[in-house]
Backbone:
């Protein structure tokens, strides 16, 4: 299945193509892949993050589906 | 009332709200008067967001913060030396009522958690995240977008340091989420908080809320 994944801010450095940037890349993933699986595969640091699938928040144990758009954003401190 | 997209050429009219044409500022003000905003956190962002919203006509505000005013807050937060030691919610309410005695303020002087947050912000037309910690920001965004997916949420990330004020922007990464900041300047990485840049971010948050209440979205 094909899933688009966009990583914001410093997480963009974890895109496999090494090019950085927040634009989505398309991944070909096996059926049943979860958001947590992708977080591990991409090697994202264990820092606070906001996870969206198709514009809605999704828990990290959610299974991804063909055509989904996953976006992960890491808030940083200050206020 | 006719829509007038030219009123704000950098935004598109949206939702189901018709924006009054120029010369009908009273209608704009009436719409803001009828709106409510919940502000989660009353520090550098939240205290200034509250004042800007009130000055712009949003008279119904919910203020949420567990903390008390400290001398170290006075470099960027809308508090005064004679308010040190008082709950931020109460001190801020006192200041807001000096600006507009008709302000309708609901105060929650408590620590917000994933369990109580929904009850604290329920019913607001817009929710503004204005806390300092990254993990609390993530909790607020995740909780609000799960519990109230139809309620616009304004959040801020990346406002510390002496980077250009022009790097602080408002964007809309998904339908009901407005994201303010440069996304990277982390106070815990040693960047100091300057009143000027914090207030740029606070102004972005307040203005994003106002634009949404008037029916405009960011691109």
Residues:
């Amino acid at each position: 299945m094909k899933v688009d994944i966009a990583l914001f801010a410093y997480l963009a450095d974890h895109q496999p193509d090494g090019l950085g940037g927040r634009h989505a890349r398309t991944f070909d993933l096996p059926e049943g892949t979860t958001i947590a699986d992708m977080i591990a595969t991409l090697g994202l640091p264990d820092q606070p993050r906001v996870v969206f699938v198709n514009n809605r928040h999704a828990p990290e144990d959610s299974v991804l589906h063909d055509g989904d758009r996953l976006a992960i954003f890491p808030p940083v401190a200050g206020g | 009332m006719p829509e007038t997209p030219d009123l704000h050429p950098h935004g598109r009219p949206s939702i189901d709200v018709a924006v009054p044409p120029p010369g009908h500022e009273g209608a704009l003000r009436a719409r803001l008067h009828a709106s409510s905003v919940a502000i989660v956190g009353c520090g550098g962002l939240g205290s200034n967001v509250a004042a800007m919203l009130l000055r712009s006509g949003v008279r119904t505000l919910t203020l949420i913060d567990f903390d008390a005013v400290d001398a170290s807050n006075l470099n960027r937060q809308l508090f005064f030396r004679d308010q040190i030691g008082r709950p931020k919610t109460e001190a801020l309410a006192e200041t807001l009522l000096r600006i507009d005695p008709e302000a309708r303020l609901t105060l929650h002087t408590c620590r917000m958690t994933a369990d109580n947050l929904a009850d604290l912000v329920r019913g607001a037309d817009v929710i503004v995240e204005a806390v300092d910690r990254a993990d609390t920001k993530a909790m607020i965004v995740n909780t609000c977008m799960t519990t109230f997916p139809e309620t616009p949420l304004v959040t801020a990330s990346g406002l510390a340091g002496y980077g250009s004020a022009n790097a602080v922007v408002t964007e809309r990464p998904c339908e009901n989420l407005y994201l303010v900041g440069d996304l990277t300047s982390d106070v815990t990485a040693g960047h100091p908080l300057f009143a000027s840049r914090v207030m740029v971010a606070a102004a972005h948050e307040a203005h994003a809320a106002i634009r949404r209440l008037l029916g405009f979205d960011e691109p």
Notes: The longest helix of chain A spans residues 35-42. Chain A has a mean pLDDT of 95. Chain A touches chain B at residues 8-10, 47-52, 55-57, 71, 73-79 (CB under 8 Å). The CA atoms of residues 2 and 15 of chain A lie 16 Å apart.
